Amino acid sequence: MLYKRIAAKFPDLKSNLLKSNITSSPEQYVKETVFYSVFVSIAILLIGFMFVKSFYIFLAFPLLVFIMFFYMFNRVNVIAKKLDQLISREVVFAGRFVIIELESGIPLYNTFENIGRTYKHVGVYFTSIIEKVRLGTSLEDAINETIDVCPSENLRKLLWQILNSISTGADIASALNSVLENIVREQNIAMKEYGNKLNPLAMFYMMIAVIVPSLGITMLIVFSSFVNIRLSLFVLIVMAVAIGLLQLMFLMMIRNSRPNVDM
Q1: Nearest 5°: CA angle at 135, between 129 and 141?
Q2: What pLDDT does 169 receive?
Q3: pLDDT at position 213, please?
Q4: Measured in whole angstroms, how far is the alpha carbon of residue 45 from the centre of its chain?
Q5: 121: pLDDT strictly greater than 60
Q6: Rounded percentage of the chain residues whose pLDDT exceeds 70
Q7: Fold of domain 87-184
Q8: How far is it, in rounded angstroms, from Cα 117 to Cα 122?
Q9: Of 150, 180, 176, whose CA–CA distance to 164 is shortest?
Q10: Lowest-confidence range among 80-84, 179-183, 232-236?
Q11: What residues does each domain of the chain span?
Q12: When comparing pLDDT for 218 and 24, which is higher?
């Protein structure tokens, strides 16, 4: 009951699990997250106890479990975002593939089958549509169900346009052309914005993650020699790890700010 009450606090959890291709129920996902949070928290405290040698460190256990729970709970969103990135790199090419196939006279059903075999990430959702149709679901319902579990906004736009064209009897190829033009336009804008942000990010990276730590450690070593302060190996290792984490954080920030475009 506890896990069910916790899951009820997150009404979007079920939808996010479907978009992340995680088959666990919301209650099971919460249960697994709590278990991993407790396990990791105990491991961190035991490692910390080896250095601190004080049992008072275990007083932080409830707070650490709380922090680790929300950190690990967010992995469903991380997976969905990763899938969105992979799909976004293929969606324009897959859309053009649909247009070429339809203009060549190939039926929509066969076009979906060909996309499933051609594109690794986008193809998963078109293959899912085909499998549902084979099991007796109508093509419109199969597309609609796939839209509900698709993590990519651009692919949902593509599928919505196909669904609307089927419902209204409009030409699918012509409708998809306008959607793809909008997606490409948005991707071009995102690339320009990324280019504008890249130079300041690179400058901050050089200043904060490279120049300041290098000069700071040099000055600290020189200063310690004057005042006769001994820097232990442990302190130097901690400083090196901290600088490495800082550089990794900046590199991840630059990487994550890159648009999901493959042009």
Answers
A1: 45
A2: 82
A3: 74
A4: 29
A5: yes
A6: 92
A7: Receptor-associated Protein (1.20.81)
A8: 10
A9: 176
A10: 232-236
A11: 2-73, 87-184, 193-256
A12: 24
Closest among 153, 156, 134 to 145, alpha carbons compared = 156
Six-digit token string for 88: 């976004």
User: What number of other Cβ atoms are within 10 A of residue 17's Cβ?
Assistant: 20
Pair of tokens at residue 187 = 């991707």
Report the C-alpha gap between 184 and 261 in whole angstroms. 9
| Tokens at 168, concatenated | 């209204």
Q: Within 13 A of 82's CA, how many CA atoms are on the CB side?
A: 8
d(C-alpha 34, C-alpha 165), whole Å: 45
For the segment 92-107, the average pLDDT, to the nearest whole number, is 90
**Radius of gyration, CA atoms only, the chain:** 26
For 119-139, the DSSP string reads -TTHHHHHHHHHHHHHTT--H
105: left (phi over 0), alpha (psi -120 to 50) or beta: left
Dist. CA 177–CA 164, nearest whole Å: 14
Half-sphere exposure of 214 (CA within 13 A, CB side): 7
User: Is 118 in contact with 86 (CB distance < 8 Å)?
Assistant: no
Tens-digit pLDDT profile for residues 137-185: 899 999 999 998 889 888 999 999 999 988 888 888 888 888 888 888 8
Predicted model pTM? 0.73
Which of helix, strand or coil describes residue 243? helix
Longest Cα–Cα distance of the chain, Å, equals 84
